[in-house]
Design goal:
The chain has about 525 residues and is an alpha/beta fold. The strands form 2 sheets. It has an 8-stranded parallel β-sheet. Helix 6 packs across helix 9.
């Protein structure tokens, strides 16, 4: 699918500002969208939105279909009459610039229980009808997810492989008994999903009004401890106890000398093929109900994936196994039609990966932090860019650009200065300019780079499961200087939504121009 030239910001909703310990999809998200629209940004990349478990990574979600209830906005619940001001005032003292999940999660759970209790006592017929319609519309995944979460919550939140054997192995009688015993907990989970979907729909409508497309994520692999693996064990390489026999990861690369051991179960692609990839088609459809464009994380896994024996301490020992990428995309496109997809083609990229992406004309990714090693033929250097790409200063897995520049070698810094013609005093905005001026159709940067923040604002470190996904922005970050600079870059490099790409741009609303 061919896209129109645009620029935007990468920011997970947990990083938005607000009073309740974690960014959410309420007023602060709407304010952020208004800023994007005001300066002509056409893209907001949000990363996965699912409920998270250990490590709080959205790439290790309990569900491929559900939304994260901790992103639900308390203020929006107040506006709907499902919470009171006293409910909101009764909260712990939260840190302002990071997410303390240990405080946030129990408080949000308590709020959501109060909201559901108030809903059950309400006489809002319109809301009741809307809730019933939602349950009917989501019946392909919601009953299994709510049962999975209810069982999990009643067994000390342990992984499903550690549940009592009848529940682990999905004994019919045991599951029926669980549905009776845990009915209230299941109904709470259904309500949480209803509210999340409702609030997200409002936010997505705001984006559409501002000509902003949301870029979401489909992680190629799913978490082992998830409703999907528990309810569809035949689709994965598992033993009789439900544990994986082989797991996902990547061999040693520029992120890690020992590779990345993700631990996700690997797909039985033969079974998926026999079902015409129906589970995958439902998964993609579901994500496209949340977002406008889908970034497929670890796209190379559709050509071939790194198979690691279960129990290995690192990802160093494994083997490449071919995957049915061409057959998969033919079937998916045949079912869903043309797809708005970005292929994350970073890492160890072999000719078969390039051929697969090119066969289906999918834009790949460029990360500028990987470009400045001293070789002018490096494909990620701006003069080698091509149109059908999305160019980033860095992603959620990278250090901030300022932090990256501090850590690279003096030789790399010297090459960067020679190539960029800059002294490095404002390296983050220099890299943003390089991305925005690229011929690549999309240009994006994490908000941390627009704020020129150091490594303390890094969002994630691949292979490290603790202390990440915690960074939050300050409300004062969205100031006039930032807006002027971003609007000017969007104007100068023809990425603005404030005029039609088919028309001659008539001027920049933030004239006379950028201060960077």
């Amino acid at each position: 699918m061919r896209f129109k030239r645009a620029g935007g910001i990468l920011l997970h909703p947990t990083s938005l500002f607000g009073d309740f310990g974690i960014g959410d999809i309420g007023p602060s998200a709407h304010q952020f969208i208004d800023l994007l629209g005001e300066v002509g940004c056409g893209l907001w990349q949000v990363l996965p939105l699912g409920p998270t478990g250990y490590g709080n990574s959205p790439y290790q979600s309990f569900s491929s279909f559900a939304g994260n209830p901790y992103l639900i906005s308390p203020k929006s619940l107040l506006e709907d009459g499902l919470l009171t001001r006293d409910d909101l005032d009764d909260h712990p003292t939260f840190p302002a610039e990071r997410v303390d999940y240990g405080k946030v999660i129990p408080w949000k759970q308590k709020l959501l229980r109060k909201a559901f209790d108030r809903y059950k006592k309400s006489y809002n017929k319109a809301l009741i009808i809307e809730f019933e319609q939602f349950i009917h519309q989501q019946d392909s995944w919601l009953p299994e997810f709510s049962l999975y979460m209810a069982i999990k919550n009643n067994h000390d939140s342990v992984a499903w492989v550690d549940w009592p054997t009848p529940l682990r192995d999905r004994d019919t009688g045991s599951l029926e008994q669980a549905r009776v015993s845990y009915e209230d907990e299941m109904n709470q989970e259904v309500f949480n999903q209803f509210i999340f979907h409702r609030q997200w729909a409002d936010l997505r409508a705001r984006c559409a009004n501002q000509k902003i497309q949301i870029i979401g994520d489909i992680p190629i692999f799913v978490a082992h401890d998830s409703a999907e693996v528990w309810s569809n064990p035949e689709l994965f390489f598992l033993d009789k106890s439900g544990n994986p026999t082989v797991v996902a990861g990547v061999p040693p690369d520029y992120f890690s000398e020992t590779g990345q051991l993700w631990g996700n179960p690997l797909y039985r692609w033969d079974i998926h093929r026999s079902y015409n990839y129906s589970w995958w088609i439902k998964r993609i459809e579901s994500v496209l109900n949340f977002v406008d464009i889908v970034r497929i994380d670890h796209f190379r896994g559709f050509a071939g994936y790194w198979e690691i024996p279960y129990g290995s301490p690192t990802a160093e020992k494994g083997r490449w196994v071919p995957a049915p990428g061409e057959d998969f995309f033919k079937k998916v496109l045949g079912s869903l039609g043309e797809l708005p997809v970005i292929a994350e083609d970073l890492g160890v990229i072999t000719p078969d990966v390039v051929a697969l992406r090119q066969k289906f004309d999918l834009p790949g990714m460029i990360v500028l932090q990987f470009a400045y090693y001293g070789n002018p033929t490096e494909a990620f250097l701006p003069h080698n860019h091509v149109e059908n790409r999305a160019v980033y200063t860095g992603t959620h897995d990278n250090d901030t650009t300022s932090g990256w520049f501090e850590k690279i070698s003096e030789e790399e810094k010297h090459f960067w200065r020679r190539y960029m013609g800059r002294d490095g005093n404002d390296v983050a905005w220099d890299m943003i300019r390089a991305a925005w001026s690229s011929v690549s159709v999309f240009a994006l940067a994490p908000l941390q780079d627009f704020l020129s923040l150091d490594s303390n604002a890094r969002m994630n470190l691949p292979g490290d499961t603790s202390g990440h996904w915690e960074w939050r922005m300050k409300e004062k970050s969205l100031n006039e200087e930032l807006k002027q600079n971003l609007a000017d870059f969007n104007f100068l490099y023809n990425r603005s939504t404030l005029f039609s790409k088919e028309e001659e741009p008539q001027g920049n609303p933030y004239s006379p121009g950028s201060t960077v």
